[in-house]
C-alpha cells in the first residue's frame, strides 16, 4: 500500500494530548507520535516520515517548554488532501513573537532557513538547542499561528517526494507550487470571525514595546490567515525606509522574497487605505497599506496572496485596513517608548560619577547596583581629586529609591564636589550641605523635583578625604558619618573595627554640627564603606548585619585585594537570600598599598 493510500485509509485522522511543561514532555511527545503512526498506517509510511516526525515533534515540544515555560498541547493529524503529516505544538505564551534580527556576521543557518529567523536559530545553537533549525531544514512547510491566549507552531511533512527547492523569481515566491496551506489555519476561524481576530491582534500588539517586535508579530498574524506572504517596511523620520520583517507561508522562500522586496522600498504615504502593489500579474493580489497613526506614516504593510489559491479572501480589504491601523498605533507607541527610554538612559547616565583615576598608594573598588535594573537610584557614590594632593570620597543614601531619590542624589553630589574643591574640610562640607537641605527655601525647591509625596528627602552620607603619603607609607584618612552605616577597617591580621562614630542624618535640622575623625590607613589596611542595602538585606526575619554579620564577612576577606573584597561581599549579600535585593546596593572599598 502506498503512503497516499494509507492516508486515505486513515481518513484524515487526528489525535492530541496535553504534556507537562517539564523535561518529561519531549519523551512523551515522541512516544505519542510513534503510537499514533503505528495505529494509523505503519508500516506504510516511509522511514523519513517516522524519523523526521519524531525528531521534529521532540524539538518543537522542547522549544515550547524551554521558551514559553507552560504546559504544551500536541496535535498529530493526517491531511489526505495534501498527503501530509501535520504536527501542531501549542503553548500558553503568545506574546513572544519570532524576532527577525540577524546577528552581525551570522551567515544564517542554511539554505532552508530564513534570514528573518537567524536570530532565533543562532539562539538555539548558542543554547545547545536545534529546534527552529531542524524545523526549517526538515519540514516541507511550517509556520506560527497566534491567538489571544496561546501560540501554535506547526509543520508539515510530505508523505511522498522531497521538499521543493527554493524558488528564485518573484512570481514563484508569491505563487509557490508547494502543496497549498489553508488560508485560515485556525480550525475555529469561522466561529471567531474578523472581530475576534482584531481583538486578539490588538491584545498581542499592545504588549510590544519594540518596533521590530511589532513588525514581526504583524506579519505572523496575517500569514497564513489572510495572506501567503507579508512584509513590514519602517519609515524612520528623515532616514531611508528599512525592511523590518518578512514572512511567507513557505518558510524557505523568505530569503528570496526579502531580496526581491529590498530592490524597491516603498515611499512613505500620508494617504490612508490599501493600494494595489505592482507584482507579476500571474502572482495574485498584492497590497501596500500605509501604517498611519496620529498623522504620521510609521511604515508600510505589504501583503500578497497567490492566484492559485484564490487571492485575498472576499471582504478582506476592510479587515486588513483595520488591522493596519492597529499596527500603526503599536508602532507609534513603541517609538514613543523608545524615545522616552533613550532620554531616561541619557539622564540617568549623567547622574553617575565620571571615571576616576588611580589614587597614589591606594587601591579602590566599587559595587553599585540600583534596584529594578535602573542605572541609578537613591544610593550614590563618588571618588574625585580635590586639589592639593587630596582625594575625596562619598557614599550616600537618599531616604527612598528610584528616580525621585536619584534626583536628590544628583543634586547632592555636585554640591559635595564644589565645596571640597573650594577647600572646605570634611566637617564644614557636611555642615553646609546639611544647612542647604534643611533650609526651608532649599527644601521647597528640592521637594518639587525629588519628593513624589511632597516631602523633602533626608540623606545619609559617609564623606571623607584621603591624603596619600610617601610610597609604601599608606595614607591619612579623615571622615564623618551622617546617619550612615559605619565604615569598617580591616587590618592585615584580620582585626575589624568601626572607623567612625554615628551622627545625625543630613536635612533634619539646620542646627546640627558634624565632627570628623582622622586615622592612618596603613599598608594592607582595608576600609569598607556600604549603604543600608548591604546591612539591612533580609532573610527569614534576620538582617545581613545582625550579630555583626558584615564584620564577620569582611574578616573572611583578609588578604584579598580591593576588587576581591568587593566581589566577595557582593556575592555574600546576594547569597544571603534567594530573592533579589529590595533596596539599592552600594559598596566602596579603599585599600592602602
What's the end-to-end separation, in Å?
Answer: 85 Å
Share of helical residues: 25-40%
Low-confidence stretches: 1-10, 99-130, 162-191, 440-444, 449-456
Radius of gyration based on Cα positions: 32 Å
Number of strand segments: 23
Tally of contiguous helical segments? 16
Shape type: elongated
The mean pLDDT is: 78
Main sheet attributes: strand count, strand direction, barrel closure: 6 strands, mixed
Overall SS class: alpha+beta
Proportion of residues in β-strands: 15-25%
Give a verbal description of the structure.
The chain is of the alpha+beta class and 593 residues long. The protein has helices at residues 3-10, 25-40, 47-68, 118-126, 131-138, 170-174, 189-206, 211-222, 254-262, 316-351, 402-421, 426-438, 440-450, 532-535, 549-555, 562-575, and strands at 14-19, 72-79, 84-91, 141-146, 151-158, 229-234, 242-248, 275-276, 285-293, 296-305, 362-369, 379-387, 390-398, 459-468, 475-482, 488-490, 496-498, 502-503, 517-521, 526-530, 538-539, 542-543, 585-592. Helix 8 runs antiparallel to helix 10 and helix 11 (402-421) crosses helix 12 (426-438). The longest helix is centred in the middle third of the chain and has 36 residues, at 316-351. The protein is elongated and about 90 Å long. Residues 1-10, 99-130, 162-191, 440-444 and 449-456 have low confidence and may be disordered.
Amino acid at each position: 500500500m502506498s503512503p497516499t493510500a494509507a492516508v486515505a485509509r486513515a481518513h484524515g485522522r487526528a489525535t492530541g494530548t496535553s504534556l507537562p511543561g517539564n523535561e518529561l514532555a519531549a519523551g512523551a511527545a515522541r512516544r505519542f507520535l510513534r503510537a499514533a503512526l503505528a495505529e494509523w498506517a505503519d508500516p506504510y509510511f516511509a522511514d523519513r516520515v517516522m524519523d523526521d516526525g519524531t525528531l521534529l515533534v521532540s524539538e518543537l515540544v522542547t522549544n515550547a517548554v524551554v521558551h514559553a515555560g507552560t504546559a504544551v498541547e500536541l496535535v498529530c493529524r493526517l491531511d489526505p488532501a495534501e498527503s501530509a503529516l501535520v504536527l501542531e505544538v501549542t503553548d500558553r505564551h503568545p506574546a513572544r513573537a519570532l524576532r527577525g534580527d540577524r546577528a552581525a556576521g551570522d551567515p544564517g543557518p542554511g539554505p532552508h532557513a530564513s534570514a528573518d529567523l537567524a536570530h532565533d536559530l543562532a539562539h538555539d545553537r548558542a543554547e545547545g538547542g536545534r529546534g527552529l533549525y531542524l524545523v526549517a531544514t526538515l519540514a516541507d512547510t511550517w509556520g506560527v499561528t497566534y491567538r489571544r491566549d496561546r501560540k501554535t507552531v506547526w509543520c508539515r511533512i510530505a508523505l511522498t517526494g522531497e521538499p521543493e527547492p527554493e524558488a528564485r523569481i518573484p512570481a514563484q515566491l508569491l505563487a509557490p507550487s508547494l502543496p497549498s496551506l489553508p488560508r485560515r489555519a485556525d480550525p475555529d476561524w469561522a466561529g471567531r470571525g474578523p472581530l475576534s481576530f482584531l481583538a486578539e491582534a490588538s491584545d498581542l500588539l499592545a504588549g510590544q514595546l519594540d518596533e521590530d517586535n511589532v513588525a514581526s508579530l504583524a506579519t505572523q498574524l496575517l500569514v497564513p490567515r489572510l495572506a501567503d506572504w507579508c512584509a513590514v517596511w519602517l519609515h524612520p523620520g528623515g532616514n531611508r525606509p528599512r525592511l523590518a520583517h518578512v514572512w511567507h507561508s513557505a518558510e524557505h522562500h523568505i530569503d528570496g522574497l526579502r531580496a526581491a522586496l529590498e530592490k524597491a522600498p516603498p515611499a512613505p504615504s500620508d494617504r490612508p487605505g490599501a493600494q494595489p502593489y505592482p507584482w507579476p500579474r500571474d502572482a495574485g493580489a498584492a497590497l501596500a497599506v500605509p501604517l498611519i497613526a496620529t498623522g504620521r506614516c510609521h511604515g508600510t504593510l505589504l501583503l500578497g496572496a497567490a492566484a492559485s489559491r484564490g487571492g485575498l479572501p472576499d471582504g478582506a480589504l476592510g479587515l486588513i485596513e483595520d488591522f493596519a491601523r492597529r499596527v500603526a498605533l503599536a508602532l507609534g507607541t513603541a517609538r514613543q517608548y523608545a524615545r522616552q527610554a533613550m532620554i531616561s538612559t541619557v539622564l540617568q547616565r549623567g547622574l553617575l560619577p565620571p571615571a576616576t583615576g588611580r589614587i597614589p598608594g591606594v587601591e579602590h573598588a566599587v559595587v553599585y547596583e540600583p534596584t529594578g535594573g535602573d542605572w541609578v537610584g537613591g544610593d550614590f557614590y563618588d571618588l574625585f581629586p580635590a586639589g592639593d594632593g587630596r582625594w575625596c570620597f562619598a557614599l550616600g543614601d537618599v531616604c527612598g529609591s528610584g528616580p525621585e531619590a536619584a534626583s536628590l542624589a544628583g543634586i547632592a553630589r555636585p554640591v559635595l564636589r564644589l565645596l571640597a574643591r573650594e577647600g572646605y574640610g570634611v566637617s564644614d562640607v557636611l555642615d553646609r550641605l546639611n544647612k542647604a537641605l534643611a533650609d526651608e527655601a532649599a527644601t521647597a525647591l528640592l521637594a518639587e523635583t525629588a519628593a513624589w509625596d511632597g516631602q523633602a528627602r533626608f540623606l545619609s552620607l559617609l564623606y571623607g578625604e584621603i591624603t596619600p603619603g610617601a610610597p609604601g607609607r599608606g595614607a591619612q584618612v579623615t571622615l564623618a558619618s551622617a546617619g550612615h552605616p559605619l565604615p569598617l577597617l580591616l587590618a592585615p591580621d584580620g582585626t575589624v573595627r568601626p572607623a567612625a562614630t554615628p551622627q545625625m542624618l543630613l536635612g533634619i535640622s539646620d542646627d546640627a554640627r558634624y565632627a570628623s575623625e582622622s586615622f592612618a590607613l596603613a599598608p594592607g589596611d582595608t576600609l569598607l564603606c556600604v549603604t543600608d542595602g548591604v546591612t539591612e538585606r533580609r532573610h527569614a526575619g534576620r538582617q545581613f548585619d545582625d550579630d555583626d554579620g558584615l564584620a564577620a564577612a569582611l574578616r573572611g576577606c583578609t588578604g584579598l585585594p580591593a576588587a576581591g573584597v568587593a566581589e566577595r561581599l557582593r556575592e555574600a549579600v546576594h547569597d544571603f537570600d534567594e530573592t533579589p535585593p529590595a533596596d539599592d546596593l552600594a559598596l566602596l572599598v579603599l585599600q592602602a598599598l
